[in-house]
Design brief:
Elongation Factor Tu (Ef-tu), domain 3, eight-stranded mixed β-sheet, six-stranded antiparallel β-sheet, 17 strands, Aminopeptidase, alpha+beta, 2 domains
């Protein structure tokens, strides 16, 4: 399992440029015996026909991650860039990035603190003032390596450390993709349709297309979600807590979870003695926001793995939460066979 997570998180897959991640998922999904295809927007759809086929259940996780796109190249060879998705500007300075299909290394820079005016030192540096330095001396030299429109992702490796913890970029939502691949290894009475979606970070776009095409009877979105159980954050703002099990949502800013599915998910966890928690904050959103509005409406529920420091080069999660989310999802899908 850890090796799959490593491959997925170290791959580049900024929204709109998910090709590298998609190729890994196509390979691994095909090994499960699923019928695998790619739709016109780039979603991977993996179908596993059920023994009875009485119900069509969509499970979804997004392939894309936050990142950058090169917008111009200066005469001195520095690259200006735009962010793709929601990124806290305070984390950008001095971070390493990889640009384009050749993974050209670069560093996000800004004017040195010694040269800043006093008021600049007391404010958050705006991303518009930053640049990516690839070591080029001129525009012509830089253009041999990088082009306007090239994507860039954080340069970050997968690391296991501490008490069964892992650190990586893009756990939101490569952790969900890894879980879907585990689910595809099982056989169910229901028709299981695993949708690995694109462009979630810029508007839940891939899920909208996938749900319209799949026409599911119900859907489960599997996410990596905010975990803020750290010092100086009030307890009521923790949202989720690492090591306490998968987080079941009742609503967020893009959807209200179907109450019967929420109840069924909680009862499944309790019946099988799987640790779980209720996500306590309703900020943020996920693919359920598009899926539940598809066609005549799709009942949907959201289950997430708590991840500290999401949307950064160093997200963190507990492998126990990951494994318990797999357990919960497998039992829930088995329960769908009798509903």
């Amino acid at each position: 399992m850890a090796e799959v997570l490593r491959r997925l998180t170290e791959a580049s897959g900024v929204s709109g440029n998910e090709k590298e991640v998609r190729e890994i998922i196509l390979e691994l999904a095909a090994e499960t015996g699923a019928e695998v295809s790619v739709d016109r927007i780039g979603n991977v759809i993996a179908r596993k026909k059920g023994r009875k086929g009485s119900k069509k259940v969509m499970v979804a996780a997004h392939m894309d991650e936050i990142g950058f796109i090169i917008s111009s190249i200066s005469e001195n060879g520095m690259l200006k860039f735009k962010v793709v998705g929601g990124i806290d500007q305070r984390i950008l300075l001095s971070k390493r990035v990889l640009i384009g299909k050749n993974r050209v290394p670069g560093i996000i820079g800004v004017k040195a603190i010694h040269l800043q005016e006093p008021k600049e030192r007391n404010t958050v540096i705006n991303q518009k003032q930053m640049y990516i330095d690839i070591g080029a001396r001129s525009r012509e030299e830089a253009q041999k390596l990088v082009q306007i429109g090239d994507y860039a992702c954080f340069d970050s490796t997968f690391v296991r450390f501490g008490d069964n913890k892992v650190k990586a970029k893009a756990l939101d939502d490569r952790v969900g993709c890894a879980i879907l691949l585990e689910l595809l290894k099982e056989n169910y009475d229901i028709d299981l349709i695993a949708c690995f979606t694109v462009q979630e970070e810029i508007g839940l776009r891939g899920a909208q297309v996938a749900a319209w095409h799949v026409e599911p009877d119900m859907a489960v979105v599997v996410e990596g979600t905010t975990c803020a159980d750290i010092p100086d954050v009030p307890e009521h703002m923790h949202t989720t807590r690492m090591g306490k099990g998968p987080a079941i949502s009742f609503m967020d800013r893009t959807s209200i979870v179907h109450p019967e599915l929420f109840k069924q998910m909680v009862e499944t966890a309790e019946k099988h003695s799987i640790p779980y928690q209720i996500k306590e904050n309703v900020s943020g959103g996920n693919d359920a926001g598009s899926i539940h509005k598809s066609r005549g409406g799709v009942p949907a529920v959201v289950v997430s793995v708590p991840c500290r420091y999401i949307h950064s080069p160093s997200s963190m999660m507990d492998m126990n939460d990951y494994n318990n989310t797999i357990r919960l999802m497998k039992e829930f899908l088995k329960g769908c066979e009798t509903q």
